[in-house]
Amino acid sequence: MNDPILEMRGVSKTFFGIKALRAVDLTVYPGEIHALMGENGAGKSTLMKILSGAYRPDPGGEIRIEGRTVRIEGPLGGRAAGISIIYQELSLAPNLSVAENIYLGREISRSGLLARGAMREGVGPILKRLGADFLPSTLVAHLSMGQRQLVEIARALHVRSKILIMDEPTTSLSAAESERLFALIRQLRAEGLAIIYISHRMDEVYALGDRVTVLRDGRLVGSLDKPEIRADTIVRLMVGRDVSSFYKKDHDPEAGRGHPVLAAIDMADGGRVKGCSLIVHAGEVVGLAGLIGAGRTELAHLIIGASPKTSGRLELEGRPVEIRTPGEALEAGIAYLTEDRKALGLFLDMSCLDNINLAVLGRDAKLGWFLDRDKARERADRAFAGLSIRAANAGVSAGGLSGGNQQKVLLSRLLAIAPKVLILDEPTRGVDVGAKSEIYSIIDNLAKAGTAILVISSDLPEIIGICDRVVVMRSGHIAGEVRRGPHSPLAQEDIMGLATGMEHLDA
Amino acid sequence: MPDNGAVEAKPASTTTNGAAAETRRQRMRMLISALGMLPVLLILCIGFNVLSEGRFFTGQNLGIVLQQAAVNTVLAAGMTFVILTGGIDLSVGSILAASAMAGLTLSKVPELGMLWLPAALLTGLVFGIVNGALIALLRLPPFIVTLGSLTAVRGLARLLGADTTVFNPSIPYAFIGNGSLTLIPGVASIPWLSVIALLVILVSWLVLRRTVLGVHIYAVGGNESAARLAGIKVWAVLIFVYGISGLFAGLGGAMQAARLYAANGLQLGQSYELDAITAVILGGTSFVGGIGSIWGTLVGALIIAVLSNGLILIGVSDIWQYVIKGLVIIGAVALDRYRLQGSART
Fold first, then answer.
1. How far apart are CA B311 and CA B317, in angstroms?
2. Does the CB of B267 have a partner CB in chain A at under 8 Å?
3. Which of A254, A269, A271, A281 minimizes the C-alpha distance to A471?
4. At A311, phi and psi to the nearest 5?
5. For the residues of B95-128, what is the DSSP string, one character each?
6. A18–B8: do the CB atoms touch at under 8 Å?
7. Which residues on adjacent β-strands are paired with residue A393?
8. What is the pLDDT of residues A60-91, one digit of tens each?
9. Contact between chains at B211 and A329 (C-beta distance less than 8 A)
């Protein structure tokens, strides 16, 4: 093998006496896709920020690039050392053109005037090499998420980076866009770039990774070469224990034959949802699968009255209900867990206690107005114990918690109303493996207790693992339903077939 | 800052220590933001006392400071509600003037004179609710709506007195403007204006911290979309906060009318909104909403009153008072920025 491009030896980072990274040794070779995995808080972002120059490592460690010891300092330090990072939240200016974004901070000027033409020409070859289907003069605001990612990559190539770090690059991409991105990443590998690929998703790591390094609690707990990359091995390294029963499903899958709790009939919003009907029975976990943009979240928003419907009606336990606002949905016993907990779910500056109690404050209030603080505290303590939320106490603000714990706080708020119907939109997005398995077990227990549950998820193994049957949406319509056979589990191929519209091809 | 995972990552024996340290840090941060500008207020008081050779800390002068702070405290209390939801109310000065004019005009009507006080409050409330309705139901930006009513209501205030000063030397309830509540006969008394201001602060605290509505106000300011999805009637919360701000402006108008026995639609309450906003921001309430306390607002209002009083006491010219107060506003916003950096918003 050739010489390593990046060597980190004994790199540590301490924040206020807390070790976020402990003597990490990482070696990356050119022409390799190096997957970096670990639970949230395992130290991946800290490691990345050290390489970008945002954090300065503790003294004692060493970072070598192409054999030379370097000190990466300041926000431009990483770029100067040949390292580019593409963050989850892309750092492009949507009001500028592709060329201007690529040249951001290094604009070409002629006698003080911006040379737009030269900049457009300058980025042409790179865009062509990446197979871009847009022009250098296109405004970034007009690009899809996948195309924006391409601009980020182009920027990295334009400054001649030798190491490209990508942090969960597929989070906001559709399946097709992800595939294109993978092809591009492989092309860059062939061109000799070293790519550090951070991801939670096992299938991506399988598809791309030449090597996998797993971090846990700030330590590097293992590096696996291609032949050794197996899901159970990686998960065991990540959580430090065996997770044989990762997906938990103990509730009776035949309960679905019981009484229907939620029936949505012919729901439409005049745009993304075009006449969808579905039924969820008591004690049943129904998956709602589909590609990104199929209209799943929009359908959920219609059901809970978060957006106005142009047609359709709802029945709850056999009786028609009219729901115009999310507040009415909650009163009727329909709770919805949003897919975007930071923007649409949590109040990050408010305490966990307030976040948990928010939906039942009015019900608990004394004299209709005054907060019942004892009840609120009891409820929060119960939620902390019942869902094993890990925070110093219920008084800390929700924004300080990890993704998994934030999700559990939000879930507690919904559970406080003892919902008849629980709609979970991407319940484990951005949640670490440990919390994931806990959330699955919460879902399972709710189903056992008779709650009707609808799970929207883009994670197929998750849907197959926890659902009794799966309704699949495709471009605004219900494309079909996948049930398990008497002895066979839900088939991933059937779901993908319905989602992509290829179900007839293999029939 | 390390994320939570890093804290959890510690071995079991030190996890509790880490959590305790984190709690302590959070408490400390809360204490600092709760205390906020209180140390600044105390330093200003002591400083002015030294510079004025002991003339600041006299019973008479402190009474004047409290009286001068009263109307602004009431306006700033209403403004706190509004800014907590992430909004702004620029119209309070004009509403104050219109309410005072309405009150004074009614007070001269025989038989109905006693009703001038509720009339002033009602006038303020109605203008506030109109502001709130425009913002909540038509989804117009608060800055624009209240900038419009700043001008329009000012015009109405002038219209009410036919653009003259309305006098009523025998206005009922005049004691609230000039009388004092005797605490210990002959020793200690407190101006009624200040009593009212304190009551307003207490009621505001009760609503913000002890009622469901209070939590909803913080929730709307913290994350409006999430509040809507959580079933909170955002429109009702918005109408309430602008209504309260209008009501308190009406109360401020009544306080001014009782104090002066007169009101002028053109001059009364000019640029009072700026002092109210300054008090709220000095008090640590975040301009983007969701963070802040009514006690901070009280401290902020007192700082402004102490600054005005103290600068006069040590003989700083009127012109320099403007400069200094302006710099205080900018310093306050700089503090706001600094404070936000330490918050949980990520």
1. 8
2. no
3. A281
4. -155, 170
5. HHHHHHHHHHHHHTSTTTGGGHHHHHHHHHHHHH
6. no
7. none
8. 889 999 988 988 887 778 888 889 988 877 78
9. no
Alpha carbon distance A189, A31 (integer Å) = 5
Tell me the C-alpha distance between B37 and B42, whole Å: 9
pLDDT (tens digit per residue) in B52-66: 999 999 988 998 999
Work out the average pLDDT over B297-317: 93
Taking the C-alpha atoms of residue B254 and residue A349, their distance in angstroms, rounded to an integer, is 37
Helices then strands (H, E): number in chain B? 15, 4
C-alpha distances out from residue B295 to A417, B77, B183, B200, B342, Å: 33, 9, 23, 11, 20
List C-alpha distances in Å: A283 to A120, A443, A452. Answer: 59, 10, 5
Identify the closest residue of chain A to B29 by CA–CA distance: A396
- Residue A191 phi/psi, 5-degree rounding, is -80, 0
Contact yes or no for B141/B258 (Cβ under 8 A): no
**What residue ranges do the domains of chain B occupy?**
37-340
Of B7, B229, B345, the CB nearest to A306: B229
Tokens 């330093």 identify what position? B43
Q: What is the DSSP string of A191-236?
A: TT-EEEEE-S-HHHHHHH-SEEEEEETTEEEEEEEGGG--HHHHHH
What single-letter amino acid sits at A89?
E
Spatial distance between the Cα atoms of B234 and B232, rounded to a whole number of angstroms: 6
Instruction: Give me the architecture of the B37-340 domain, per CATH.
Output: Orthogonal Bundle (1.10)
In this predicted structure, the answer to whether residue A505 has a pLDDT above a threshold of 70 is no
- CA atoms of A225 and B193, how far apart (whole Å): 78
Q: Which residues of B touch A20 (CB under 8 A)?
A: 2, 6, 9
Tell me if A20 and B6 make a contact (CB, 8 A cut-off). Answer: yes
Can you tell me the distance from the alpha carbon of A116 to that of A109, in angstroms, rounded to the nearest whole number? 8
The H-or-E segment that residue B156 falls in is: helix B142-160
Among A13, A18, A24, A297, the residue to mutate for chain B (most B Cβ within 10 A): A18
pLDDT digits (tens, 9 = 90+) for A295-342: 999 999 999 999 999 999 999 999 999 999 999 999 999 999 999 898
Q: What's the CA angle centered on A402, arms A397 and A408, to 5 degrees?
A: 80
CB B263 within 8 A of CB B165: yes
* Cβ neighbours of A131 (radius 10 Å): 11
Query: Which residues are CB-contacts of B110 (< 8 A; sequence separation ≥ 6)?
Result: none
What CA–CA distance (Å, rounded) separates A464 from A488?
A: 11
Q: Is A475 on the interface with B (CB under 8 A)?
A: no
**Whole-number Å distance between alpha carbons of A305 and A269:** 11
User: What's the complex ipTM?
Assistant: 0.82
**Per-residue pLDDT at B273 exceeds 90:** yes
| Ranges assigned E (strand) in A87-234 | 109-110, 113-114, 163-167, 194-198, 211-216, 219-225
Annotate B7-49 with DSSP letters as a single string: HHTS-HHHHHHHHHHHHHHHHHHHHHHHHTTHHHHHHHHHHHH
The closest CB to that of A369, out of B7, B211, B231, belongs to: B211
DSSP state of A284: -
Q: Does any CB of chain A come closer than 8 Å to the CB of residue B31? A: no
Q: Tell me the two tokens of residue B50.
A: 């030294």
CB within 8 Å of B228: residues ≥ 6 apart: A306, A326, B234
Interatomic CA distance for residues A306 and B325, integer angstroms: 46
**In order of start, what are the domains of chain A with their CATH numbers?**
6-239 (3.40.50.300), 253-343+418-500 (3.40.50.300)
Nearest CA in chain B to A401: B4
B/e letters for B1-27, b = 16+ CB within 10 Å, e = fewer, are ebbbbbbbbbeeeeeeebbebbeeebe
